[in-house]
Fold:
Amino acid sequence: MGWLDWLSAGLVSVGAFFFLAGTVGLLRFPDVYTRLHALTKADNLGLGFVVAALALQAPDLSGAFKLLAIWTLALFASVTVAHLVARAALREGLEPWRRR
Amino acid sequence: MNAFLFGVAIFLLANLAAGLVRIMRGPTAADRMLAAQLFATTGIAVMLLLAEALAQPAAQDVALIFAVLAVLSGLAFVRRVWGKALKEGG
Structure:
């Protein structure tokens, strides 16, 4: 395994850690808004690291661009869904959690 | 390298299984939808890892489909379910 493979393995590990952090946030955070944060930010960052690791392994530039396009599409999906869910919740009066 | 990628894919699937608890517990409908979105994001990552580990570039197209389905399912939920669920109290 060359240095490129070690770098990819390291990036995939960091990505997997961020996925774990996102799930811990999804399970432990106190209300919908904070759980949205955990899901969209941490998970998409983890996906970005995994895509970066795999782009390093891609056989040519077009393969790497395809992976980046997939990541960008996943980002847009998460952003759109998070915004719409939070806006609807706020409009209907779902109160954000406050520290007691 | 392939064995490591398989290991990470299995770890992500275990992660997903843990996230499913939110579907059972989540007080509001959006919490359950968030777990479904977790399915989508984790599915994309697992598909990309498997595409690399099995040397099947076609699996990247599957990941692309997951991303599009995440958008569609999230939009359908917000438009059809979320407003009504909130009016009835979550």
Q: What stands out?
A: The mean pLDDT of chain A is 90. Residues 55 and 64 of chain A are 5 Å apart (CA to CA). Chain A touches chain B through 45 residues (CB under 8 Å). The helical segments of chain A are 3-28, 32-57, 61-91.
